[in-house]
Amino acid sequence: xxxSAFGMIIGSGGWWDKTVNYELIEGNxxxxxxxxxxxxxxxxxxxxxxxxxxxxxxxxKEKKHGVTVVTIFxxxxxxxxxxxxxxxxxxxxxxxxxxxxxxxxxxxxxYWTKIAQAVAAIAFTYAVYRLVDIVEYYLLLWTxxxxxxxxxxxxxxxxxxxxxxxxIIAALWIADGILDAQIRTILLSAGVxxxxxxxxxxxxxxxxxxxxxxxxxxxxxxxxxxxxxxxYGPVEEVGFxxxxxxxxxxHLVTVPNSVIANSIVENVGKRPFIRRTSNIxxxxxxxxxxxxxxxxxxxxxxxNVPEVNTDAETPPRVYFSEFNDxxxxxxxxxxxxxxxxxxxxxxxxxxxxxxxxxxxxxxxEFAFPSQTLYVKKD
Length: 378
Fold this sequence. Notes:
Blueprint: H1 2-10, H2 30-65, H3 69-93, H4 106-130, H5 132-143, H6 150-178, H7 183-189, H8 191-200, H9 202-217, E1 225-228, E2 231-238, E3 242-246, E4 252-256, H10 257-261, E5 266-267, E6 274-282, H11 287-303, E7 317-323, E8 328-336, H12 341-362
Helix pairs in contact: 2-3, 3-4, 4-6, 5-6, 11-12
């Protein structure tokens, strides 16, 4: 039917009506192969046209109304549509060729059908793979309502896990269910190799479960200062395999999640304040009067610093505490709010400078390690 209709259009008896004298394609006129090529080109052109049209419409709608589920859905399906039309083209163009005893080898026809089915399956899988963006969209909406930023890092992990799972299932489905690659037999016969792969991937599996532990227990949040395995700094990213910590020296340290799950994590960012403990030493020549005056001066300085906590539970502590070998010791302890590392250093500097100023005005000298040697003459 297709042959007679096409013959009425182009006529007969020309070079296009001649058959090629090869064994595998015997009985098929040249025009049939030209039609096959034309159908494939037209299918690809239609697919690309629809792809750009859908993508352009989604982009224009997004500019007017912002990102919505509809725009994400259209963008996700724009590229898979192009692949789907290519698969349709492969199905249609096969209709123009003869397969059988007088035509092309039937085995080629059967394999042609499987290839077309595989391309269609790839288009479907590609669509499902891209539609994970909608799941990500709703997850981001949910995490934006929570106070913690660790949930935001969970979204890309879920997205990657879903896409990897879809890709693996699709590859096995296409290879075993469509192309008859006997994947089950290959997997069963690869027992020793599977054990080797499992042993090689044990660290990856441990890191994966370590990431699950981090997201479940939430020992820290993004941007919080932590101390783990000798490294100290804010958390920048929690990934599928590792956690990135930016040290105070500026270095980016990547710590495997399995190490974090099995280590003691000190969350410095959770502290309600930062405590400073220091020993102020003055000379023995100061006497008890200046020792007492030193204590009062330090108390007055701390009372006038608003960032120093003055709650009943954690007030500033200043005491004349010890008689050292070479000095009189004044114990000083106070707590700084907010618990910001750099604010803490600014407060310490302010206290130190004011202490030096007040001690200098009062004639109180700071002590330093020294020894006095007395020589007795006979």
